[in-house]
Hints:
The protein is an alpha/beta fold.
Amino acid sequence: MSASTTVLQTFADSVLSLTLNRPEKLNAFNEEMHLALRAGLERAHRDDAVRAVLLTGAGRGFCAGQDLGNRDPRNGTPDLGHTLDTFYNPNVRLIRSLEKPVVCAVNGVAAGAGANIAIACDITLAARSARFIQAFAKIGLVPDCGGTWSLPRLVGEARAKALALTGEPLAAQTAADWGLIWRAVDDDALMEEAMALATRLAAGPTRGLGMTKRAIQAAATNSLDQQLDLERDLQRDAGRSADYAEGVIAFLEKRKPKFSGR
């Protein structure tokens, strides 16, 4: 399968939809799919017409993690650190550094790296039938794609350790109750709700939304004083934006604002 079809790109209403597309492999990652996802995320970074991203998977699963078909240790010991540096980590960094909203719709199993890419996104919705599995423990590996960073921040150390050490599946509703994801929705409503959310965000003041994303992510390592200073600097920039002016004028004129993302 070529890189052009391992991740499908569609664009409508300022939303770039990226669909992992190896359904016969539960959208498990190979090198081609990594590069195709990177191409889509890089487009979102450079293209001002893209104001939000929706990430999902084709078929009956979101992503089963790494395709182990080319990881047989009998054919030589793989350098998994190189795999992370070259393929997984750049994509996680692109998601986190994109100053535009990234919505993830988990339509089935999200295992291993698939689970951790899903929770790296800004707002994650999941079908009620979806499951999140830290499958690394089942093959003697460590959670990657930022999993050891994201999990304890989202659900606390005790739950993070239990999920990572046991590899037990976590139901979508429990994931929502624990704060791992935003919401669990009925299976047949997932894509409609996710697209509606992405479209609403794309029509919003996306420059300010991007700054909000940056500030919330920085709070994980900033002191209160550092965060107050960051808020001051970002608010100064936001207050000079065309979106702020439009938002205030629309409020005063009692009409719906028409944001431009500038």
